[in-house]
Amino acid sequence: LVQRHAPDVPPTDVLRGLTGLKSLETNQMLQHLAAQARTLGPTIPTLLMEAGESRIETELAATAGGRALADDVGQFLERFGFLSASGTDLSRTPWSEDPTIIWRSIGRLAAQPARSVAQFAEQTRGEAQTRVRENLSRPQRYAFDRLLKSTITYVDLRERLSFLVSEGSFQLRRVYLALADQLVAVGHLAQQDDVFFLSHDELSELVQGHLPPQKARDRVVARRAEMAADAELELPDTIYGDYVPTRPVARAAGEACLTGISGSSGLVEGYARIILDPVQARSALGSDDILVIPFADTSWTPLFCGVGGVVVETGGQLCH
Question: What is the DSSP letter of 319?
Answer without folding.
Answer: T
